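Explain my protein.
***
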Amino acid sequence: MILLELFWSFFQIGLFSIGGGYAAMPLIQDQVVTLHPWLTMAQFADIVTIAEMTPGPIAVNSATFVGIQVAGIPGALAATFGCILPSCVIVMTLAFLYYRFRNLHLVQGVLGGLRPAVAAMIASAGISLLFMALYGTRTLPADPKRLDFPALLIFAAGFLILRRRKVNPLWVMAASGALGLLLYTFF
């Protein structure tokens, strides 16, 4: 019965936590601390901390850790499956609908309108990351003297290597990290 309760609780969390893992935290707290007193508030805080430190989505990590605390490995499987099932069903449904109706003029118009917005969002995130790396702020600072020259050199070298040679980006990232460690440690 506890496995079904874990599954159902995290199914609801996965279904209604629109906005990512951090948006799910109040829902998880309500389910595991208030509604079902499986954890104390201190234990919940510990689980949130562990979920943030481990790789992967925070909501899925939290579901796994809560499941382990409540019912061991079967509990972890039930909670994790409950958390990811709604997203899988929604994505599969949207994929089915897209493949079924992709030739409709209305669908093509909607997707055509979304492309520039998605490209702008990706560009905005990339520019913010670039400014954060080069200036330490998310926007262009008023004082251009704050430019981090080692970061600029590493970025330019990595960009040129990726554009001119067929190198795996993971190797460029690893080399950039090693070069940054070397530059910032000794200079």
Observations:
- Residues 50 and 163 are 38 Å apart (CA to CA).
